[in-house]
Design a protein that fits this description.
Blueprint lengths: L1 E3 L2 H13 L3 E7 L5 H10 L4 E7 L19 H11 L3 E3 L3 H4 L18 H4 L3 H16 L3 E5 L3 H14 L4 E5 L19 H7 L1 H14 L4 H14 L3 E9 L13 E9 L2 E9 L4
Parallel strand pairs: 1-4, 2-3, 2-5, 3-4, 5-6
Antiparallel strand pairs: 7-8, 8-9
Helix pairs in contact: 6-7, 9-10
Keywords: ATP-binding, Cytoplasm, Ligase, Nucleotide-binding, Pantothenate biosynthesis
Protein name: Pantothenate synthetase
Pathway: Cofactor biosynthesis; (R)-pantothenate biosynthesis; (R)-pantothenate from (R)-pantoate and beta-alanine: step 1/1
Length: 281
């Protein structure tokens, strides 16, 4: 496995892979890797693929007062995990390589970015769209892999690719969870022992709401119960919403694919999760 911090070296390696007839698969990450990221690498390892993982803590997707300065950075262990998982190339650009002096461009994706986390974290998805567009241009992948845990982010990236004609297939990979159901996240390391025990209330509340809605309970009642359950467990709830799984618009009819999305805080740690609503219990 090769590690690159300069774009010229990365592009030379990608050109060599192309010369061998290998299609490039990209797994963008912000590091602090866990089993969820490794699932993305494993999904990307199709026969003949050249798997590229990027590690970049993107300052443009963090708002004022968010956790940019303390976001976990584990470069050496990340590289070891990627090597063991069978990654071929790692792109580790410094901030000045991604945003050199005079950088003045930002990409805003409308529609799917505007509610939920788009409302709770203004500017967040502009930062996501901008850095992902740069990564696509730098790496030129045939496919790119993203976790479905970040459901709204995945929708934003699909819209970005469709609207700007990027020649890349976006592949969503199912959410990876701990044994008790908590979605894996780099931010889980912020939770102390007591908070970690409480955190499982998030997937459980979503599961209960999903079953209730599928069984005929009015969505507003099921969502209110989920919010109350989370509040009682010690969460400060940003949102729990039922949306159309494609457009992310609220109040979807029952014959559409529907998704429950939630964001809530335990202390200073913000957790997100989502769950599909089955047409039957």
């Amino acid at each position: 496995m090769e590690v690159f911090r300069e774009l010229a070296g990365l592009r030379a390696a990608l050109a060599a892979a192309a010369g061998e007839g290998r299609e490039v698969a990209l797994v963008p990450t912000m590091g602090a890797l866990h089993a969820g990221h490794i699932a993305l690498i494993e999904a990307a390892r199709r026969p003949g693929a050249c798997v590229v993982a990027s590690i970049f803590v993107n300052p443009r997707q963090f708002g004022a007062g968010e956790d940019l300065s303390r976001y976990p950075r584990k470069e050496l262990s990340d590289i070891a995990m990627l090597n063991e998982a069978g990654c071929d190339l790692v792109w580790l650009p410094p901030v000045e390589a991604m945003y050199p002096a005079g950088f003045a461009t930002s990409i805003a994706v409308g529609g799917v970015s505007e509610g939920l986390d788009g409302a709770a974290r203004p500017g967040h998805f502009d930062g996501v769209a901008t850095v992902v567009a740069k990564l696509f241009n730098q790496v030129q992948p045939a496919r790119a892999y993203f976790g479905e845990k970040d459901f709204q982010q995945l929708a934003v990236i699909r819209r970005l690719v469709a609207d700007l004609d990027f020649a890349v297939e976006i592949v969503g990979v199912p959410t990876q969870r701990d044994d008790d159901g908590l979605a894996l996240s780099s931010r889980n390391v912020y939770l102390d022992e007591e908070q970690r025990a409480k955190a499982v209330a998030l997937p459980r509340a979503l599961g209960q709401a999903a079953r209730a809605i599928a069984g005929g309970t009015a969505p507003d009642a099921a969502l209110a119960e989920a919010r109350a359950t989370l509040t009682a467990a010690g969460f400060d709830v940003d949102y729990v919403e039922l949306v159309d799984a494609g457009s992310l618009l609220p109040d979807p009819p029952a014959d559409r694919r529907r998704q429950l999305l939630a964001a809530a805080r335990l202390g200073s740690t913000r957790l997100i999760d989502n769950l599909a609503v089955s047409p039957t219990i």
